[in-house]
């Protein structure tokens, strides 16, 4: 059984271990994630679960129908699993599934570098910086023999660099901050700041937590209702806006007739 989670890369910092060693770490805000869909062999011909992470203000109608009863998630990611018995739609899990010392595999999209030359993209050392090499220091030089009269496919040249899917294995988890949903991972993690990262760990299983209740919205509504007199609240709820407009139009017509 493997455990996994979606997260957002924040920044890099450093941590002191118990033996006094200083370790560079990457801070990742992981979860909470919600199970959006469970796929079975009977219907989809394979077993997997779809997970939602992070929120956004609104989604289009097809996605709103897919997320009916759930929040508007910014990211949806599917994980193929053999055992999906414990997963049901709406269940929530966070960093409590992980613990310090876990061996992690992280996948993310690397930083985009744009169009780069052969020195930066492929590590070419360039031309000699001596006599007769003006403006040739970072050029690629010859790209093939004369006889084929063409350039072979796969020849290393300048081109778009970065924005690739990169997976890094054997990253050690140094610390888990359950209160803030933070993971402190030893070393560098691919991707730019705020990039989506997928975290896997072999061994253990996912621990589901209770979904936090949204108390703020109800309190705001209660305060707004309490601030107004009872009569005003009743009239506003009983009379629709269209009826108010009709009454205003009739009053203006009566004034004109008089």
UniProtKB/TrEMBL annotation:
Q: Which keywords annotate this record?
A: Ribonucleoprotein, Ribosomal protein, RNA-binding, rRNA-binding
Note the NCBIfam families from the entry: L3_bact (TIGR03625)
Any single Pfam family the record assigns to this protein: Ribosomal_L3
Which InterPro entries does its entry note? Answer: Ribosomal_uL3, Ribosomal_uL3_bac/org-type, Transl_B-barrel_sf
Summary of subunit composition and partner proteins: Part of the 50S ribosomal subunit. Forms a cluster with proteins L14 and L19.
Give GO terms for biological process.
translation
Q: What is this protein called?
A: Large ribosomal subunit protein uL3
**Natural source organism:** Candidatus Komeilibacteria bacterium RIFOXYC1_FULL_37_11
């Amino acid at each position: 059984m493997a455990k996994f989670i979606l997260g957002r890369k924040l920044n890099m910092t450093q941590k002191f271990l118990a033996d006094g060693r200083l370790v560079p770490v990457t801070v990742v805000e992981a979860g909470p994630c919600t199970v959006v869909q469970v796929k079975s062999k009977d219907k989809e011909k394979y077993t997997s679960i779809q997970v939602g992470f992070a929120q956004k203000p609104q989604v289009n109608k097809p996605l709103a129908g897919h997320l009916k009863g759930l929040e508007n998630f910014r990211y949806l990611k599917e994980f193929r699993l053999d055992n999906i018995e414990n997963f049901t739609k709406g269940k929530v899990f966070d960093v409590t599934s992980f613990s310090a010392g876990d061996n992690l595999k992280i996948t993310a999209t690397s930083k985009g570098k744009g169009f780069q030359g052969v020195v930066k993209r492929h590590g070419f050392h360039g031309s000699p910086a001596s006599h007769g090499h003006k403006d040739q220091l970072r050029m690629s030089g010859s790209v093939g023999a004369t006889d084929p009269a063409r350039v072979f496919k796969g020849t290393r040249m300048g081109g778009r660099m970065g924005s690739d899917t990169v997976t890094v294995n054997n990253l050690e988890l140094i610390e888990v901050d359950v209160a803030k949903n933070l993971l402190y991972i030893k070393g560098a993690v691919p991707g730019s700041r705020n990039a989506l990262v997928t975290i896997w760990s072999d061994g253990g299983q996912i621990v589901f937590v209770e979904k936090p209740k949204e108390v703020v919205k109800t309190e705001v509504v209660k305060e707004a209702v309490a601030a107004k007199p009872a009569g005003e609240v009743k009239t506003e709820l009983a009379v629709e806006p269209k009826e108010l407009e009709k009454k205003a139009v009739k009053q203006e017509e009566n004034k004109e007739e008089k």
